[in-house]
Amino acid sequence: MKKSYLWSGLGMIALGLGFLAAAIFWDTPLGSLFCGFCGAFTVPGIIQVVKYIKWTSPKNAPLYRERLEEEQIELRDERKEMLRNKSGRMAYALGLVLMSGSIVAFSILGKLGVVREESADLMVFFLAALLVVEFVSGILIYRRLEKRY
Known about the structure:
Blueprint: H1 3-25, H2 31-56, H3 61-76, H4 78-111, H5 120-148
Helix pairs in contact: 1-2, 4-5
């Protein structure tokens, strides 16, 4: 396993701790956001460092080589590559339709005076939900296509 994997994990942990320090020591309205960023960087960083330590131990070296070979075979499989491409296109099209509909909906709500500064949280929630829908739909479409072909 590359040493850069370890360093990027440690960098993510440091960035997460930096956000934690910012949340603790700065009294701003962004404190809760900084706490979220702390978790978003620290936890994956810790997981990355633990994986590096696990796979670089001498007793796991043969198993790691085997998994790396399987991964290379999976990445070069033409059928799976075609399915990944097709599911990505379908998820992208779905995202475009949902985003276009949201533009129309927010425009109508804005003209009616429903959307104000207080409604910014609603918009952020909606866009976050849209991101999740697009991600999950890509996975589900890929699995469905994989069964079909």
